[in-house]
Amino acid sequence: MSVNRKSQAAQRFFAAHPVFTVAEFAQWYANSRETAERTVEALLAYHAKNGHLVRVRKGLYAAVPPGSAPASVPIDPFLVTGKLAPDAILAYHTALEFHGKAYSPTQEFYYLTSLTARPLEFRGQRFRAVRPPAALQSDQLVQSNVLSRDRMGLSVRVTNLERTMVDLLDRPQLGGGWEEIWRSLESVEFFDLDSVVAYALLLNNATTIAKVGFFLEQHREPLMVTDSHLDPLRRRRPRTPHYLSRADRHPGKLVAGWNLVVPPVVLEKAWQEVV
């Protein structure tokens, strides 16, 4: 078989896989008689050298469409994020961006994984692995409230908006700050509130539960929140006052109903006054 035909066979794979791992390519290779005479490594090296591929990191490549320049071809960061670990789940602010609900775009991308992974910097973007919350001790729980969504013909896993809300309030440092979190969540027209409450209770963190309750109560009318949603959260709020963020203990006002010390900027949503 000619080199040209072997190249064409691989490029059909690239066309269907804008971002792929070496393991995925190797599986295709093992099932493809057309490339049986060439090793996986040699074939990938050949296509990278000829401008058909961009190496994102060891074991991960992005395809270059015909006629595009490797140095400037757009590479979808959500596909990269979803391929950085076999169990990767787009989460936190990255999930907001994926769902089109982030107030501001960022160059930071977060994914949940049970594996240890080093941060990656690629084309000015930063990709960071985050361990699932400790309360999600089984894989089944980690997979709760996770969706599979199509992205350029590939499947990407991402937390749904209900889980994303709770996760952001649980780990606000992964959300871009309180203003970004509040403005982003306020752009969501509808939440399944029963799912929000159930997941918040599942995390079993009194401070997080109180933060979810406070957010829902503050948005009671637009989100159609009722006491049936708030009461289970109230019963699990902290017994003593807790700060909205442990890492940012600025003076604030005690919201007694939730035992939360809330900064005035969040309590009053002061950013709305800025023109």
Summarize, please:
With 275 residues, this protein is of the alpha+beta class.
Shape: elongated
- Beta-strand content: 15-25%
Unreliable stretches (pLDDT < 50, length at least 5) are none
Overall mean confidence score, pLDDT? 91
CA distance, first residue to last residue: 66 Å
Number of helices: 13
Secondary-structure content class: alpha+beta
Number of domains: 2
Reading the helices and strands in chain order gives: HEHHEEHEHEEEHEEHHHHHHEEEH
**What kind of assembly state do the chains in view correspond to?**
single chain
Question: Main β-sheet, in a few words?
Answer: 4 strands, mixed
Bin the helical content.
25-40%
Q: How large is the radius of gyration? A: 22 Å
Strand order of the largest sheet: 4-5-7-6
Can you give a write-up of this model?
With 275 residues, the chain is of the alpha+beta class. Helices cover 39% and strands 17% of the residues. It has 13 helices and twelve strands. The strands form four sheets. A four-stranded mixed beta sheet has the order 4-5-7-6. A three-stranded antiparallel beta sheet has the order 1-3-2. It has a three-stranded mixed beta sheet with strand order 10-12-11. It is elongated. The mean pLDDT is 91.
Give me the secondary-structure topology.
Blueprint: H1 3-16, E1 19-21, H2 22-30, H3 40-49, E2 53-57, E3 60-63, H4 77-82, E4 89-90, H5 93-98, E5 108-112, E6 120-122, E7 125-130, H6 139-142, E8 146-151, E9 154-159, H7 161-170, H8 178-186, H9 193-203, H10 206-218, H11 220-223, H12 227-234, E10 242-243, E11 253-255, E12 260-262, H13 264-267
Parallel strand pairs: 5-7, 10-12
Antiparallel strand pairs: 1-3, 2-3, 4-5, 6-7, 8-9, 11-12
Helix pairs in contact: 7-9, 7-10, 9-10, 9-12, 10-12
